[in-house]
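Example 9 (inverse folding). The structure is encoded as follows.
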């Protein structure tokens, strides 16, 4: 399959975005996105302070075929021209993952085309190859509402986890902080905006696990410290002034920045020791939208002579183009599945590493 062009239809429904996309591969393996449709669910979960698995699953089941129709329409390609169907088969919320897996199985069977199960995290981790044709190996930081891990990416099927969060994901921490301060959800962009006018030095929040060796991270203690600060201010002054909110946001963001910067530096040492030719660090996940954090990561990369890459935001957050692309990379290697493909709510990319204690309580999303 490696020496001819082909089209992949990708499907995604592992958390709170239903998505479909058509990606074209030329004979050299260069990929082009023909269409990418994402239907979000923020409005459905807004009242609950997090993703409700049952609501998500129902919405995916209702929308996945609409997404496929739109993706085919936008690509102006008939379904019969698709050469393979790629689908996220894990990790994620089981009810959601099942929606796209069942839809993909039906399409593959009906069209008589190969079915390819894709690990959602591999989709994120391979995105720098889709957007910028980055060569293996490279270092990836996945940083979102559900995940936080450093991955050394060696091939479409070889990933080494160098470290990750042992409790909350940073996006989850941003969302909780926003909730504590009465800001809107999802909290990340609001916390970032308030932080711009804040004094990051007024409150000194903890930098968890910096005193410990390795690349693992922790963000839940940070949120508890912040809760104490908020409650103290409310007890002293009867409420929060705008300057308090801005200073807390700035202090929190600086603490997250210090942790990510230091741990990236450590992950780079490990990565470069194993892969001295590696030149690129890439990020993915919603938190990568944060300009301050991106600046911090960029300067660590500059210190190490590495290129820093942040794919366009629409491809950093959940989408099906990354799934179609990752599926296409497997297809080129001759790796396909059959109708026995099952949904795997837990599916670590790197089985050689012990499971982390937690990968975010918002749902298994990256
Ligand atoms: O990758 P993503 O779209 O999906 C989930 O993992 O849910 O990431 C969403 C997360 C949310 O927690 C959101 O608060 C966070 O990314 N986020 C941000 C920013 N924009 C989105 N966090 C910090 N700063 C931002 N500008
Ligand atoms: Zn994701």
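The amino acid assigned to each position is listed next.
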């Amino acid at each position: 399959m490696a020496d001819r062009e082909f089209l992949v239809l990708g499907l995604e429904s592992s958390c709170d975005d239903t998505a479909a996309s058509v990606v074209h591969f030329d004979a050299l393996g260069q990929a082009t996105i023909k269409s990418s449709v994402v239907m979000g669910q923020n409005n459905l979960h807004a009242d609950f302070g997090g993703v409700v698995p049952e609501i998500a699953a129902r919405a995916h089941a209702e929308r996945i075929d609409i997404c496929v129709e739109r993706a085919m329409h936008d690509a102006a390609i008939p379904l019969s021209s698709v050469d393979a169907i790629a689908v996220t088969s894990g990790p994620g919320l089981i009810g959601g993952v099942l929606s796209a897996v069942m839809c993909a199985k039906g399409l593959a069977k009906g069209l008589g085309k190969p079915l390819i199960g894709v690990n959602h995290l591999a989709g994120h981790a391979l995105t720098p190859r889709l957007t910028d044709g980055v060569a293996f190996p490279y270092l990836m930081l996945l940083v979102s509402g559900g995940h936080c891990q450093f991955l050394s990416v060696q091939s479409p099927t070889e990933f080494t986890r160098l470290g990750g969060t042992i409790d909350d994901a940073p996006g989850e921490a941003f969302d909780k902080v926003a909730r504590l301060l009465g800001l809107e959800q999802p909290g990340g962009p609001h916390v970032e905006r308030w932080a711009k006018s804040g004094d990051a030095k007024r409150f000194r929040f903890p930098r968890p696990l910096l005193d410990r060796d390795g690349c693992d991270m922790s963000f839940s203690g940070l949120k508890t410290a912040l809760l104490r600060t908020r409650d103290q201010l409310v007890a002293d002054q009867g409420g929060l002034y705008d300057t308090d909110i801005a200073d807390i946001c700035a202090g929190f963001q600086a603490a997250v920045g210090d942790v990510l910067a230091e741990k990236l530096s450590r992950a780079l040492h490990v990565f470069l020791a194993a892969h001295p030719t590696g030149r690129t660090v890439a990020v993915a996940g919603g938190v990568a939208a944060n300009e301050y954090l991106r600046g911090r990561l960029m300067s660590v990369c500059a210190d190490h002579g590495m290129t820093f890459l942040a794919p366009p935001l629409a491809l950093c957050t959940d989408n099906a183009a990354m799934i179609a692309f990752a599926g296409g990379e497997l297809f080129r290697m001759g790796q396909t599945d059959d109708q026995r493909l099952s949904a795997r709510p837990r599916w670590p990319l790197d089985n050689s590493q012990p499971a982390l204690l937690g990968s975010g309580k918002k749902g298994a999303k990256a």
